[in-house]
Amino acid sequence: QVQLVESGGGLVQPGGSLRLSCAASGSISRIYTIGWYRQAPGKQREWVAVITSGNSTKYADCVKGRFTISRDNVKNTVYLQMNMVAPEDTAVYYCHADLVTTWGDRDDYWGQGTQVTVSS
Question: Which residues contact 103 (CB under 8 A, 6 or more apart)?
Answer without folding.
Answer: 27
